[in-house]
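Quick one - first record:
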Amino acid sequence: MKGSWRVRVVEFLVGNKRNKLTSLLLAVVVWAYAFGNTGHEESIDAFLIVEPAAKDQVVISKTISQAKIGQKGDLFVGRCKITLSGPRNVVARYVESELSPQGILKVDRSGRIDLRSADLFQLPQGLSVKGIDPTFLEVVLDKVVRVEKEVRASVRGTPGPGFVRFPGGISTDPEKVTLEGPSQLLEQDVVAVLTQQIDIDGVVVPLVEAIVPLVITGDDSKLIQIAEGFPREATVKIHLQENLTREQALVSVRYIVDEDVDLEIRGDQSIKVTVTGVEEAVREWKKRVDEGRFYLLVRVTDTAGEGRNVPREEVRWIDGSLPTGISDEQVKLERIILYSAKPFEVPGEDPQK
């Protein structure tokens, strides 16, 4: 009977201990689950986009009106801080995911906007935004309009010798384009459409043609753009005027024949030559003519005593004798007449023999 009582006491104590341990373990689990799902808050960085509710409007200004971080009047660039609220484990998982919430604020009026009263961010189920900083923004809306603007060519540099720019010598295609943007900005004269700059420094051709992008100037807001359907580039033609000097001189004509050929030649010994070119080159040419360093060469064959006009393509001059700055096309010649070219007659010999 005693032994039986002792056994029962031991069993009771041991069994009770097991029950306590089991109960304690269950309590810990329940407590952990309950604590993990109680309300929790945490602040994280976010980004907020401010855009108009209507397509024919544009946000031209958004500044901070009230905030803990930042000062009133500061430009709002989208960065903000939001306070998340929700079950601790849900908040923790979202924060650990390193996702940066991005919200959109659509505005339909100008004025002070309360960011706390709008559902701005798409968050996982169970999470909500309890606070946001800044709390207020000052937003200015404007109507989107279209305005036609003239395209102006942007040109720099000075043409090379012999060429100058002149009024009306520059044209663009298209001549005008339509811009789209806020009315209060577009209606100001400070906004213009220029071409990308074209450099003509040292150019010595009568026409420069280039296709270049268009550039909008006078718009610090970057809210003005070329309207859809209009070109983003233009063809620019820059006509340059020749600023050349013309000079005329009497130039010697020299006749040449093939080797071992001896002909009696009668023809013009000099003709008038007119050259056009850069002033310095023209002066040098006249000097060479006067010094006998520039003259004309005509190759002659037996004409059996007949006369003929010498074609322009048969007239030459020594390479290098024409100064740089005067091209072959800028040398104009009078007609050279070759009266006759025949073998010399030997005295006493029958010419018919």
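second record:
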Amino acid sequence: MRTIACALGRAPSTVSRELRRNDGLQGYRATQADQAAWDRARRPKPCKLAVHRALARHVAIKLKRQWSPERVAGWLRHTYPGDMSRQVSHETIYRTLYIQSRGALKQELLAHLRRTRVMRRSRHHTQKTENHGRIIGTVSISERPASAEDRAVPGHWEGDLLFGDRNSQIATLVERQTRYVMLVKLTGKDTETVVNALIKNARRLPKELYRSLTWDRGKEMAAHRRFTLATDIQVYFCDPHHPWQRGTNENTNGLLLLQGSSTTDRGKR
């Protein structure tokens, strides 16, 4: 099983779950497993925080203390190991707040998030017209190696842009294992400027400390293939409208904005 996981770039536990979920009388059949996955995805799923009210109260208390959804999810895993009824992922917390069943977490809790928006808006709705468009040749975050997912080794980074006053911007880069932060000053937000700055920054680090970069689907990374050719660093992209899949970077950006809220305007994103 470990050999299969290594070949696929997945954790052994992921392969084990897939086999348990789809191992029938005739063994594992890829076609049947794929169809079953589609069937499960189409089934409506109740919001976990709407069903488990005690869990929702735990989450609400922590959010009121200015905890990020990532920190809340981590605390639940540490406090209730093995008890999945008392655990919830940070993505579920975000979805509950911004998308589905808002009554499960009161809307006033939005004020306690580090980025106070009434709605969690995608780049499609918030970026200026010149930043719209589809990025060619993206590699999904689902293809990211297992060593990045479980933070087993350093060198896997998450990145984003932050915008400030007077049309200023910086790139924020956070290393997933150590949470080390690098800030890259930018003279513009177009893809050539951003990618050139990221290439220059990447060349300052040893190869073993910069193995991959995860970004969301902002148009500033349209030239991602040039970055990869210049640095031999693969760029992985979040699913559309799922920027919270870069949870380490999202949380760090929130802390940076708290530190410099008088000069930084995230609302332009």
